[in-house]
Amino acid sequence: MKLTQEKAAEPMDISRTHYRNLEWGRANVSLNMLMRICERFDLDQTFVLTGRNIGMNPIIDFYNGLPEEKREFFERAMYYLDQLYEQ
Q: I need a surface site. Which of 16, 19, 23, 82 has the fewest CB within 10 A?
């Protein structure tokens, strides 16, 4: 985002030193802080946690491309697959 550490720390209400320690891995990031970072900088939480966008999931992409009338069938099929997996 091309922000200085000071400018990045401001919207999170933390000091530049604390931000630097987070950035350099010298301090642990709490879940609350991670959520605040995502909120303040409009970041996708899934991407920040996993490195993947939800949209990168081929099953979700397939589901989103289905016509509305076929989604119920797909949802039932996924339910039954889940039930088989649980056994």
A: 82
